Amino acid sequence: MKGVGIEVRALTKRWEETTAVDAVSFSASAGQFTVLLGPSGCGKSTTLRLIAGLEEASSGQILIDGDDVTRQPPNKRKISMVFQSYALFPHLSVAENILFGLKVRRVPAREQSDRLEKTAALLGLSDLLKRRPSQLSGGQQQRVALGRAIIAEKPICLMDEPLSNLDAKLRHEMRIELRALQQKLGLTMVYVTHDQAEAISMADKIIVLNGGRVEQAATPRALYETPASLFAARFIGTPPMNLLRLARQDGGWMIAGDAAPFAKQFEGPLPDELYFGVRPEDLSLAGEGGVPAVVEAVEYLGADNMIDCRIGTERLTARLPHHFKITPGETIRLTWAPGAAHLFNALTEERLEEASRLLARSAGPPRDETRELSAPPASAAQGPR
Amino acid sequence: MHRRMEWIYAWLLLTPALILLFAFTHYPAVTTFWASFFSTPRGRREAEFVGLENYVTLLEDETFWQVLVNNAWYAGITIPVSIALALIMALWVDGKLRGRSFIRMAYFAPTVLPLIAVANIWMFFYTPGFGLIDQVRGLFGLGEVNWLGDPDLALGSVIVVAIWKEAGFFMIFYLAALQSIPPSLREAADIEGASRWTYFRRIVFPLLMPTTLFVSINAVINSFRLVDHIFVMTNGGPDNASSLLLFYIYETAFQYWETAYASTLTVVLLLLLSLLAIGQFFFFDRKVHYR
Ligand SMILES: Nc1ncnc2c1ncn2[C@@H]1O[C@H](COP(=O)(O)OP(=O)(O)OP(=O)(O)O)[C@@H](O)[C@H]1O
Ligand SMILES: [Mg+2]
């Protein structure tokens, strides 16, 4: 049951007045783990259910293994599915639940028991086969749902937030197990979650959805390193990327409400406002230079401290090693590595790739001279609170 | 000490209910049982102990046997037909009309109406010549039928009314049970390629078992209890053709004033009902999955 690829083209699903899925296109390659990620109500489940054939598309196409299956019933789509609520049949034993599909398809009894044995062993369910779903823990139920999906030996497995009912520890274990299982069986997995940490740790490819549209489709690394939009930047990372408004000022740019020039002019047509993004973990203390920021709060997290600070009217968080003794009210000077800076168009909310690269190279953490020209001594300007 | 107080409280709380239960249920039941071994008191003559004489009369009473057979038919037809109809209607309404309370209300109407009112409506259907049924038959050139006056048809006509009344009531229970089945079960079955019938047989029907048990116990009890419409429609006639056990008990007790014999008949009715209820629990016990 080697995985097969899925391609979704301009898929749209409309209910009377809501458009749940709006011209979504992406592909999930054979044998890869693809995650649909987005906030609640963004259309993840609907997209998955469209792929499964549980909802009918308003328009667009779904191709599985190259065949157009848009109008095919679920059982013609080479898919199996694990539901968020598991959808186990409460009156059937674990064994009967897992075998349900094989019985429906009249697979010979010998083969049924062989496959059951194999699947149960794989999932560690061998001792639980006689139990009813209500006699199982959440994690065990989850495994039964998984067993029902993989015994079908379909090349594609669809999962809708299968771990959301589990506690944190079990969720972590199941993440690793699921990923291992998917790789071992070579399944094409399409996995829905709203948890970005889950997505990043499991996916080969993440499709970020927002309001029924695709924001970005990329590998976890690309998503983290080069978010394509403000939304993607805000959604990935804990805590998420700091986004500071930049305003145009005398041929350069400055952080909103701040007195000091921040960066020189970038080339190309740009709006009057930009967002400058930098991740908390990419910020560090500058020995010399850097951007002065007033510390507002310090959150102690053990190895690191989360420092909430303010530059001008913009707030940002820095993640700094705990050995820096920082107290609220103090002014610190922040800097970041070239390449850690991101610029976004404030109007279109899109990433400005060229400008980001320029910023990384030239402006970077602004050089001392530019800053010194107009900045009053930072500590005097903003007294302790 | 503390436990004692709890006990006293418990008994105090239970007492009103217990008094009512004993006064109006258990005590009459026991006196009925007791009375069945005595003769009927008449005028100045006191009731005498007659042993099993009333029971011997019962065995030799042809009307009793006819009424019992009638009741067997009545139960044997109303119970399965009304349950099956209720289930079919519930499946239909659940699938097509999710959330349309008006239609559900329409189905429920026969239940809201008192049986006497239902019987009056049906009297209009059954009236020979003028009734709805005969008018429809007239369109096809068929003759008049005296639905309630013909000894061969009277029981059947009464059964139809009972089914009409019961099916809507039972449907509500099935509908509630169907709506509590998560739609994801249907979807999981769809993904496996299960047909509608397979899904019904393997998933829905077993999940409805507790409801079926509940409904069928009600149906059994009702098949002995629901006789109101007989008063309005046939009065047991013609020639006891549509008389049922409870109706016969009423006649014996309050028209012929044979109270002792009526007690004997009542004991038989209670016995029958308890046997049926116990039998049902044993029969269903292994097949019912409670969630
Ligand atoms: N049957 C339906 N009828 C009308 N609107 C619907 C229906 N199902 C979903 N929607 C709407 O479509 C949008 C997307 O829903 P969907 O279930 O796909 O969200 P989701 O991304 O899975 O969210 P969550 O993370 O909360 O599960 C929502 O606005 C929802 O209200
Ligand atoms: Mg969802």
TrEMBL record, chain A:
Chain spans, region Disordered: 357-385
ABC transporter domain mapped to chain residues: 6-236
Glycoprotein in keyword set: no
Alphabetical UniProt keywords: ATP-binding, Cell membrane, Membrane, Nucleotide-binding, Translocase, Transport
Domain of life: Bacteria
SMART domains: AAA
GO CC annotation, single: ATP-binding cassette (ABC) transporter complex, substrate-binding subunit-containing
A GO MF term: ATP hydrolysis activity
Keyword hit for Transport: yes
Membership in a protein family: Belongs to the ABC transporter superfamily.
Name of the protein described by the UniProt record: ABC transporter ATP-binding protein
Naturally occurring in which organism (per UniProt): Denitrobaculum tricleocarpae
TrEMBL record, chain B:
Ranges of residues in domain ABC transmembrane type-1: 68-277
PROSITE patterns listed in its UniProt record: ABC_TM1
Signal peptide limits: none
GO biological process terms, semicolon-separated: transmembrane transport
Transmembrane among keywords: yes
Keyword set, alphabetical order: Cell membrane, Membrane, Transmembrane, Transmembrane helix, Transport
Keyword Membrane: yes
Subcellular location as annotated: Cell membrane
Pfam families recorded: BPD_transp_1
PANTHER family for the chain: ABC TRANSPORTER PERMEASE PROTEIN, INNER MEMBRANE ABC TRANSPORTER PERMEASE PROTEIN YCJO
Family: Belongs to the binding-protein-dependent transport system permease family.
Name of this protein: Sugar ABC transporter permease
Organism: Denitrobaculum tricleocarpae
